[in-house]
Amino acid sequence: MEDLKDSAKKPFKSRTKKSKKPSTEHEGASSSSGEVASSVRGAGGSKQGHHDQGSEQRGVSSTGGDVITLEAGAAGPEEGGVSCTTACGVGAAEADRGAASRITSSDEKTNYSRLCHLLVRVGSQVLRDIFDGIIPPTDLQGFLKRHPAQSKLQSLRKEGILNTMQWSKLYPAVPSSVSSTGFDPALLMILLRTICNLSPPPAGWDVPPRSVDIACECDIARVKYFMNAVSNPALETSVSDAVFNNYWQQIRDLLVRLGGTGYEDVIDEMKNQEMDPLDEEHFIELLKQWRKIEDDIKDRLTEVESVLQCSDMEGPEQGGVSSTSGDNASGVRATGTDEGNTFK
Hints:
The protein is mainly alpha-helical. It has helices at about 5-10, 85, 90-135, 140-145, 150-160, 165-170, 185-195, 215-230, 240-260, 265-270, 275-310, 330-340, and strands spanning about 55-60, 65-70. Helices cover about 50% and strands about 5% of the residues. A hairpin with a 5-residue loop joins strand 1 and strand 2.
């Protein structure tokens, strides 16, 4: 079974046409436990539904006032085979409309899976770039052994915030093999919040920042916000082109700002890549798992963070990342922008 890193690199064919045939039932894609907390078991084929052009609009907004408009699909005709009258040559127009509805539904599902793909593939890599910039890979093993990082991580493990799989990635049987490439997105987010000496955003890590707040820490919180927004079940089969383009542009701007201009071409190419139905389900499931882990630990992590922050204030030696361990958050962002990181 391939891990998240390898699956993210799977080549996709350039999209050459807008519509595609309705997908039949497929076995679910899966990811190894090296990148996610549990195995991925995708559901069957793409969901189908009919979306009325006069659909009611509802908005998803951030604290900063940015509003993303969603379309709620109206209930459509029953799915399945054509009726007896259609089979006899009667009602051909209705059959054509049904086919168009299925194609539209498939395109909207693909729009949704593309957003999941963007957040899982590029979003997690950008978080990894920031982590590696603060704690260089060559120093990672030693850093995790030293105080206060080790004691903080032990507290997180004791409170059930770090699960067994994540702990094994931090402290593998062969210590020298530890690498951030094996850290899943949820683990990267935990580490950035607790041992990387980053200051929480003004409104905290779990609240979308104001649009004017574009510090590195605020953008990290935005990655989490978009993960939650996109993994909303209401979006899964109702991402019209307009909604898709709105989300894509905001996430693109965020990831380029965090990771550097080297990500621009990668993200732009991904926007029109053809996606196999199995790949669609794969990235959808990975994003759901990421959110589930975040939801499960949210309250406990906030409580433990308060305790850890109090211990940090006791003395400089409790500060987490020393000046020799890596650049600060601002330096990481600036370095990424100047050098133009590319997706590896």
